[in-house]
Amino acid sequence: MVDTQKLKGLIVSAGKTQKEVAKEAGMSTNTLSNKINGTREFTVGEVIKICDILHITDNAEKAQIFLG
Q1: Residue by residue, what is the 3-state secondary structure of 7-62?
Q2: Interatomic CA distance for residues 61 and 29, integer angstroms
Q3: Are 68 and 38 in contact (CB under 8 A)?
Q4: d(CA 60, CA 23)
Q5: CA-to-CA distance for 7 and 59, rounded, in angstroms?
Q6: Any idea what the Cα angle at residue 39 is, between residues 38 and 41, rounded to 5°?
Q7: How far apart are CA 40 and CA 59, in angstroms?
């Protein structure tokens, strides 16, 4: 389960909107929203892209965010 609050906080901390992150990750805003809110699951490729976009490099932090 995705840590929704942490991921949303990191998006804001990066100075981005969900719309901007979605576009950079190659998905619609609705798709990203569904994935953040747990309606749909992230693929490994999407997690990698989002971590790159948000400059998340620590593996423990990645696990905390995307694996709950």
Answers
A1: HHHHHHHCCCCHHHHHHHHCCCHHHHHHHHCCCCCCCHHHHHHHHHHHCCCCHHHH
A2: 24
A3: no
A4: 26
A5: 14
A6: 65
A7: 22
Q: Which of 26, 50, 23 is nearest to 36 (CA)?
A: 50
Place of tokens 């490099």: 57
Report d(CA 55, CA 45) in Å as an integer: 15
Per-residue pLDDT of the chain (68 residues; tens, 9 = 90+): 899 999 999 999 999 999 999 999 999 999 999 999 999 999 999 999 999 999 999 999 999 999 97
Structural contact between residues 65 and 3, judged by C-beta atoms closer than 8 angstroms: yes
Which tokens belong to 24?
A: 């950079």
pLDDT value at residue 58: 97
